[in-house]
Amino acid sequence: MTSTRIPVKGERPYDVVIGTGVLAELPGLLSERVRTVAVVRPAGLPEIARPVCEALTSAGYAVVELPVPDGEHAKSVEVAAELWSAFGRYGVTRSDAVVGVGGGATTDLAGFAAATWLRGVEVVQVPTTLLGMVDAAVGGKTGINTAEGKNLVGAFYPPAGVLCDLATLASVPRDDYVAGLAEVIKGGFIADPTILLLVEDDPEGARLPEGRHTRALIERKIQVKADVVGADLRESGVREILNYGHTLAHAIERVENYHMRHGEAVAVGMVYAAELSRLAGHASAALVERTRAILDAVGLPTAYRGDAWPDLRDHMRVDKKNRGETRRFVILDDVARVTRLEDPPEELLEAAFREVAR
Ligand SMILES: NC(=O)c1ccc[n+]([C@@H]2O[C@H](COP(=O)([O-])OP(=O)(O)OC[C@H]3O[C@@H](n4cnc5c(N)ncnc54)[C@H](O)[C@@H]3O)[C@@H](O)[C@H]2O)c1
Ligand SMILES: O=C(O)C(=O)C[C@@H](O)[C@H](O)[C@H](O)COP(=O)(O)O
Ligand SMILES: [Zn+2]
C-alpha cells in the first residue's frame, strides 16, 4: 500500500506521512538548510533507530545518536538537561534538527528538548508505537513530568513533520500496542464514530498491527488529531476535547509513579469521564456501557483501586484545565458531542469514581 499524507494546518503547517517502509521519505521532511541531525531514541532500542540513522546518513546528514532512558523515565528535567548538554557538545545549531524516534515518551522529550534548545530548533518525529503515531507525535504538545505531576513543564512546539513507518509496530510488546488503542478509541468517542464501529466490528483484530481495520483506525485517529490541533494549537478552546479521560488518567499515573501505561490509565479515565457525564445529566447509561464494552473487548482496564480516591482527588487539583479556583472536566453529551463541566460538587466527582472503583 502506498503512503498517505495527512496535512496539519496552522501557523507552521506540516504533514504526517503514514505507510510501511516509508523511511526514504524522512529527509524530505527536514528543511533544506539542515546539516546535523541529533537522533533521540530509547537506550534499549538501538534497532529501531538504526534504519532511521542509515536513511539520514545516506542522504548526506551528519548524524549523532543520543540514547535516553526507556519510556516514561525519559520525561524528566535531568534527562532533558543531558540532551541540552549533548546538543552543545555536538554543535547542534539553529540550522540543524532533532529527530525523535520511539514511543510517545521519547517523542515528548525529544520535542521538548528541541523546543528549548537555542529557543527552538527543528524537530521531526518518527513515532514507533501505536500511541506515538495516533497521538503523541502529532500536534506539538511536548513535555516532561515534575514531582507534582504529569507533563507539567513543556511547550506547544509543532514538528516540521511526522513519519509513521507502520513496519515498526511489529516489535511493539502487545500490552503497549493495546494501550495505544485507548487513544484511538478516545478519538471515536470525541469526534469520529466510525472508529468505534471499526473496533466493535473486530476487537481481536484491533489488538494487532496486522488487523483488518488497523490502517483505517490509525489514519482516522490521526485525522481527528490533525483537525483539532490545526484549529487550536495552544489549547485555548477545541483542543481540550483531546484531553477526554485524562483528568483522572494523569492522577492515576502519578499515584502509580508512572508504572502504569498512559493508555491504560486513559482507558479507566474515559470510563470515569463517561460516568461523570451520566451523573451530571449529560450522557445516557448506554454511552457509559458502550465505553466499558469497547474497552473490555480489546482488553483495556475499566476499573481502578477504590482506596486510592483521596490521593487521586488531590492530584486532579493540579490539572492543566483548571482555571484559578474553577475546576474543569471534559465530558460527553453523546458520541462526538463534547462539552465541559465546570466546578462539579466534590460528591459528584466521588460518586463517579465509586462507579469505576474495584
Ligand atoms: N504529546 C502528546 O500529545 C501526547 C499524547 C498522548 C500521549 N503522550 C505521552 O506518550 C507517552 C506514552 O507513549 P507510549 O505509549 O508510546 O509509551 P512509551 O514511549 O513508554 O513506549 C512504550 C514502550 O514501547 C517501547 N517501544 C517503542 N517503540 C518500540 C518498537 N517499535 N518496538 C519495541 N518496543 C518499542 C518503548 O521503549 C517503551 O518501553 C506518555 O508519556 C504520554 O504522556 C503524549
Ligand atoms: O494533544 C492533546 O491536546 C491531548 O490532550 C492529547 C493527550 O492524549 C495527551 O496525553 C496529552 O499529552 C495530554 O496533555 P496534557 O496537557 O493534559 O498534559
Ligand atoms: Zn493521552
Describe the protein.
This protein has a 7-stranded mixed beta sheet, sandwiched between helices. The protein has a two-stranded antiparallel sheet with strand order 7-8. A two-stranded antiparallel ribbon has the order 10-11. It folds into 2 domains: 4-171, Rossmann fold, CATH 3.40.50; 174-356, Dehydroquinate synthase-like, alpha domain (Up-down Bundle), CATH 1.20.1090.10. A hairpin with a 2-residue loop joins strand 7 (141-146) and strand 8. 44% of the residues lie in helices and 19% in strands. The model has no long low-confidence stretch (mean pLDDT 98). By secondary structure, the protein is of the alpha/beta class. The ligand O=C(O)C(=O)C[C@@H](O)[C@H](O)[C@H](O)COP(=O)(O)O binds next to strand 8.
At a glance:
Helices cover 44% and strands 19% of the residues. It is of the alpha/beta class.
Say which CATH homologous superfamily of the largest domain is assigned: Dehydroquinate synthase-like - alpha domain
- Name the strands of the widest sheet in spatial order: 1-2-9-6-5-3-4
CATH architecture of the largest domain: Up-down Bundle
Helical region count? 14
Q: Can you count the beta strands?
A: 11
End-to-end separation in angstroms reads: 44 Å
Low-confidence stretches: none
Task: Report the principal-axis shape.
Answer: globular
CATH topology of the largest domain: Dehydroquinate synthase-like, alpha domain
Question: What portion of the residues fall into strands of 2 or more residues?
Answer: 15-25%
Pathway: Metabolic intermediate biosynthesis; chorismate biosynthesis; chorismate from D-erythrose 4-phosphate and phosphoenolpyruvate: step 2/7
Organism: Sphaerisporangium siamense
Subcellular location: Cytoplasm
EC number: 4.2.3.4
